[in-house]
Each structure stands twice: as structure tokens, then as C-alpha cells.
Write a structure and sequence with these properties.
By secondary structure, the protein is α+β, with helices and mostly antiparallel strands. It folds into two domains: 2-78, Nucleic acid-binding proteins (OB fold (Dihydrolipoamide Acetyltransferase, E2P)), CATH 2.40.50; 85-244, Recombination protein O, C-terminal domain (de novo design (two linked rop proteins)), CATH 1.20.1440. It is built from nine helices and eight strands. It has helices at 41-44, 80-84, 86-102, 109-128, 133-146, 176-180, 190-201, 214-231, 239-244; strands at 2-13, 17-24, 28-34, 53-59, 68-77, 165-167, 172-174, 185-187. The strands form two sheets. Strands 1-2-3-5-4 form a five-stranded mixed barrel. Strand 4 (53-59) and strand 5 (68-77) form a beta hairpin. Helix 3 (86-102) packs antiparallel against helix 4 (109-128) and helix 7 crosses helix 8 (214-231). It is elongated. The chain binds zinc ion. Zinc ion binds at residues 156, 158-159, 161, 174-175, 177-178.
């Protein structure tokens, strides 16, 4: 198979091999081993680093349990802008880890292509952005949406009325009356829900123009954290780094 890929994770293995976690537009997430990757300049040309966009050739798997074998890789784009600033790099790595954990393996072509497209556009956005806690929470929300976890924010998930709170287990907003009858509800200002709803509708390229300050930012951070903890249920290794760099919580 020949396709493109984003390198989500690269792990040195044995003497000279490298195991790659890739996101591809053809098959979603794919794990492949590059034999002799750290020796063969000819076949891999130093292209197999995290966040690189590459063209790859993968040999068909001989056994169902075997790892796919990467025959060749050529660098398409190494996202230099991401590597210029610690905040950009950390945010991009966080996104890559989210995809590595949640993107489906062997996804249907349309779904895989849409995810891949999101991945490229999100990296392009981060590459030119000034990362801050606002961008981090907005892009995280969009990534969860792209991965099939889209919270309902426009209306009460139970009765359709104007929402005033967020129901974490149901993954959606609820009105005041429904909130009273529910467990696991977080009070949120309407303005916060409206802003996050808008963040889901905006073209990704314009996401960093969305204002989100003070209370709305704090509430958004809290809401996305709780939503993610409940529905994803994993701690991401790269989250504490974002905290250290002042890009918001999420480390637990
Ligand atoms: Zn309701």
C-alpha cells in the first residue's frame, strides 16, 4: 500500500529498527515497523520523526497478528514552525497522542480521510499560532469532535430547551429544570456554551480568532477536562507538559 501518513509516535526498537504509530488517510491509525530505520538513509532518509508528514509504502501483513512493515518513507513536510516554539510543539504532540490513543485502526476510507485532513489542518493552525490556554482548549474540543466525541452544546439534550449547565455523563448541555433532576451536572454560563458551540461550527482555520476569556475560558477548560476524563478515560502523557508551559490544566 502506498499512502501518506502523519507520524504520531516513533519508538526506537532493538538495534536499528523503529516502530511507528501513523495516521493515514487510507486506513486510519496504523502501526508499522521500519526495519533498519536508523541505518537506512536510502529507504527512510531520516523522515521518521514525530509530527512529520511522509509518503510511505507499506508491505501487506503476512499474518493477522504481525505488525505492518514499512518499506519506504519520504518526507513531505516536517512542520518546522511547530519546532520553533515549545508551546507549539507541546500542543502538537498532545494532539498526536490524542489521535494515537483514539483514532480507529482500519477505519473506513471516508472516516480515515476526514480524520487525516483534520490532523493536517490542526497542525497547520498550531504551526502559525501563538499557543495559549484558549487555543489549547478550543483545538482539544475540535479534536474530540473529529474523533467522534462531539458534545451537544446548543440545546438541552433531554428536552431541547435553552441550556444552562453541562451533563458530563450524557456529554451534552441541559436546561435548568433538567439539571435539577440529574447527577454529574456542572453549572456553566450560557455565554460559555455558546462560545464552545461556535467553536464546533467554525472553520478550523479561523478557530484562533474566537474570543474566550476570564470565566468562559476557565469554565471551558473545566468542561472539556471533565468531558474528556469521563468519555475518554485516559491520562495523556503529554498533558502535564502543557500545564508546565502555561497552556492550561488537564493533567488530572
Ligand atoms: Zn431540559
Amino acid at each position: 500500500m502506498r499512502t501518506e501518513a502523519l507520524v504520531l509516535r516513533a519508538i526506537d526498537f532493538g538495534e536499528s529498527d523503529r516502530v511507528l504509530h501513523l495516521l493515514t488517510p487510507a486506513a486510519g491509525r496504523l502501526t508499522a515497523i521500519a526495519k533498519g530505520a536508523r541505518r537506512s538513509v536510502k529507504r527512510f532518509a531520516g523522515s521518521l520523526d514525530v509530527l512529520n508528514r511522509v509518503r510511505i509504502e507499506v508491505a501487506p501483513r503476512r499474518r493477522a497478528a504481525a505488525m505492518a512493515r514499512l518499506e519506504q518513507a519520504r518526507l513531505v513536510h516536517w512542520h518546522p514552525g511547530l519546532r520553533e516554539r515549545p508551546g507549539r510543539f507541546a500542543l502538537a504532540c498532545y494532539l498526536a497522542e490524542l489521535f494515537d490513543r483514539l483514532a480507529p485502526e482500519g477505519a473506513a476510507p471516508r472516516e480515515a480521510a476526514a480524520l487525516y485532513d483534520f490532523g493536517l489542518r490542526a497542525l497547520a493552525l498550531i504551526e502559525r499560532a501563538e499557543p495559549d490556554p484558549r487555543l489549547r482548549v478550543l483545538i482539544e474540543l475540535r479534536a474530540l469532535d473529529a474523533l467522534g466525541l462531539r458534545p451537544e452544546l446548543e440545546r438541552c439534550v433531554r428536552c431541547g430547551r435553552e441550556p444552562e449547565a453541562f451533563h458530563v455523563p450524557e456529554g451534552g448541555a441541559v436546561c435548568g429544570a433538567c439539571a435539577l433532576r440529574s447527577e454529574g451536572v456542572v453549572r456553566v454560563q450560557r455565554g460559555t456554551l455558546r462560545a464552545l458551540g461556535q467553536a464546533l461550527r467554525l472553520d478550523l482555520e479561523n478557530l484562533d480568532r474566537l474570543g474566550l476569556g476570564g470565566v468562559a475560558l476557565a469554565e471551558s477548560r473545566d468542561l472539556v477536562d471533565r468531558f474528556q476524563r469521563f468519555h475518554v478515560g485516559i491520562e495523556l502523557r503529554s498533558a502535564p507538559v502543557l500545564g508546565v508551559l502555561g497552556l492550561g490544566g488537564g493533567s488530572g
